[in-house]
Design a protein that fits this description.
The complex is a heterodimer of chains A (about 100) and B (about 180). Chain A is an all-alpha fold and about 100 residues long. Helices cover about 75% and strands about 0% of the residues of chain A. In chain A, helix 1 (about 5-25) packs antiparallel against helix 2 (about 25-50) and helix 2 packs antiparallel against helix 3. In chain A, about 55% of the residues are buried. With about 180 residues, chain B is mainly alpha-helical. Chain B folds into 2 domains: about 1-90, Four Helix Bundle (Hemerythrin (Met), subunit A), CATH 1.20.120.1200; about 140-175. Helix content of chain B is about 75%, strand content about 0%. In chain B, helix 1 (about 5-25) packs antiparallel against helix 2 and helix 2 runs antiparallel to helix 3 (about 55-75). The radius of gyration of chain B is 23 Å and the shape is globular. The termini of chain B are far apart. The chains are: A mainly alpha (about 100), B mainly alpha (about 180). Chains A and B meet through helix 1, helix 2 and helix 3 of A and helix 1, helix 2, helix 3, helix 4 and helix 5 of B.
């Protein structure tokens, strides 16, 4: 277990999340991709915190990222439910009411 | 460091990345959510290996216990289960795959070729340190995060309540007229 192996794992996680965000049309699946991306960032923070002189700032930052992800998931779920009530679907392509 | 820790690292990394790939490509969104569970659990294992015990526990509690349940709620509430169609159409597969593979190559190359000033990590409990730092050096972000959580809570409750605001507004309008 070395730093570069961990960074490669985080990069793979990030790319999987990015692929999900780019290809999925269901908004919930897009949110799953965003969570994967946030997890990849967290793995990077913690890996650098562990291997570079145990700076605790990395772990603190990861805690804040987890908090933000939780808040984001809650608000996104509420928005999806509202969108499902008004449009009958949660596909991201359907949310184009503001288009001119 | 070689030995058991290495094997555990490879197992956790394989579980994390394999489950993440499944999340990205599985057509059924319910199966993708279950794969996401394994990915989160693998990340928690990586945290344990990185001497981040508090974060590992938080990962299990918040991600596996909270966010994943929220996502499953969203899946169940936003699909017509009776229709039997919880599939997940995709688009732009080839360009997205190309972009992701190229990006992965670039990131991996940068990670492998950069000479980081790596020090040998030590295994110590972190919970007390995190708690102390949150109450001293990172007190302001901590408080800002609490305000943000309150705002998100109120916003989620406001957005997801049953459609009562419209009728009340109409009543008021009629009352005025």
């Amino acid at each position: 277990m070395t730093l570069d192996k961990l960074l490669v794992v985080a990069a793979a996680l990030f790319c999987c999340g990015l692929y999900a965000v780019m290809t999925r049309r269901n908004a919930v699946a897009v949110l799953m991709g965003v969570e994967l991306i946030l997890n990849a960032a967290n793995v990077n923070f913690v890996a650098f915190s562990f291997f570079l002189n145990r700076v605790m700032g990395g772990q603190i930052f990861a805690v804040f990222v987890i908090v933000l992800a939780a808040a984001e998931a809650a608000v996104a779920l509420a928005i999806f439910l509202r969108m499902f009530a008004t449009t009958g679907t949660v596909e991201v392509d359907a949310a184009d009411e503001l288009k001119g | 460091m070689s030995g058991p820790a290495d094997y555990i690292f490879y197992a956790a990394a394989a579980m994390t990345v394999g489950a993440a790939i499944l999340v990205a490509i599985l057509p059924n969104i319910l199966y993708a959510a279950v794969a996401l569970l394994f990915s989160f659990a693998g990340v928690a294992g990586l945290y344990v290996l990185l001497s981040a015990d508090f974060l590992a526990a938080t990962q299990v509690l918040v991600y596996v216990g909270g966010i994943l349940v929220l996502l499953l709620f969203a899946v169940f509430l936003s699909n017509r289960i009776s229709g039997g169609n919880i599939t997940n159409p995709t688009h732009f597969r080839l360009p997205a795959a190309a972009i992701c593979l190229v990006l992965f190559g670039v990131l991996s190359y940068a990670a492998v070729s950069t000479p980081f000033a790596v020090k040998r990590g030590v295994y110590l409990p972190t919970t007390a340190d995190i708690g102390e730092l949150l109450m001293t050096r990172y007190l302001l972000p901590f408080e800002v995060a609490s305000v943000l959580l309150l705002a998100a809570l109120i916003g989620a409750a406001f957005l997801s309540r049953p459609d009562r605001g419209a009728t009340e507004k109409d009543d008021m309008r009629e009352g005025k007229a």
